[in-house]
Amino acid sequence: MTIKTDRHRPEDPRAFEEMLLRSEAKFSTLFNASPLGMTVVDAETGRFLNVNKAVLNATGYTEDEFLSFSYWDITPEKYRDQELQQLIDLKEKGRFSPNRKEYICKDGSLFPISISGVALVDTDGKEIVLGLIEDISERLAHEKELERLALYDTLTNLPNRRLITERIGQAIAKSQRDRSIFAIFVLDLDNFKPVNDNLGHYGGDELLKETALRIKSLLRRGTDSVSRHGGDEFLLLLTDIKTQDEARRIAKSICKALAKPFQIEDEVVTVSASIGIAVYPDHGTDQITLFRNADKALSRVKEEHGNGCKVFGSYY
Fold first, then answer.
1. What residues are annotated to the active site?
2. Domain annotation for the chain: domains and CATH numbers
3. Contact (CB, 8 A) for 71 and 56
4. What is the pTM of this model?
5. Could you tell me if 186 and 120 are in contact, meaning their C-beta atoms sit under 8 angstroms apart?
6. What is the pLDDT of residues 287-306, one digit of tens each?
7. Burial of 150 (0-12, 13-18, 19+ CB in 10 A)
8. What's the rounded mean pLDDT across residues 251-265?
């Protein structure tokens, strides 16, 4: 394929033909050797006219297979509006800026790419689109890891304070809509410091990870959340509960589960937990008030030597 151009066109037809051949050879070499994915598409039909090895290697298709497709065939339906906007940009601007999408690979997996395109005309007068395709798999993995680090505790892999705060905000909005209630638990391990000192730094970390797993195993999937707030403190969000008594029963079951011995390397470790409970909207209609009242309930449990739970206000 040769890109049509009238710039610096020699008057001698043979010289012009030689120039086109040289241009075609240069383009073909660049096209095939480029580490950047490149495609040529018929602007009218959307069918692929050419594809380089970078795209074939990433998607798993043979050249013949790929050239039997149009760009609609290997693009998931969710990108349909985006594809239509690209066509509008090509018509109005002669190009479209880089945007993210995916190609459907031969094995059914999705290949994440950033694609840009420019409208051209070949030597036969056919309108074509040259697509430039960048593999963004590593970039997305890096972004995902950064997001995980921003939202999850690195030790326990539980949501951190920021993420649980977002979820509590969502729970408040939902409860305001449907008049449901939810509870937050502030959970603290009793006498963790001497246990941590005895186990050492590594053993203490292992105990926290095992504690997180044990708490998580007791929660309802899809409705409840547990986060680590730092140290040996955890925050739990239980949505769609019916009564304060239900919240108290769940808290008691968690305390009972955490009182069972942990096997940390060669040592059997026994701990207990204290839980303070606040229920929306009875004990607050905003996060700050709910946190404060759950923490007050936790303090009352601690004053009574821990290993138990209390709902805010139930001890007055």
1. 232
2. 13-140 (3.30.450.20), 152-311 (3.30.70.270)
3. no
4. 0.69
5. no
6. 999 999 999 999 999 999 99
7. exposed
8. 95
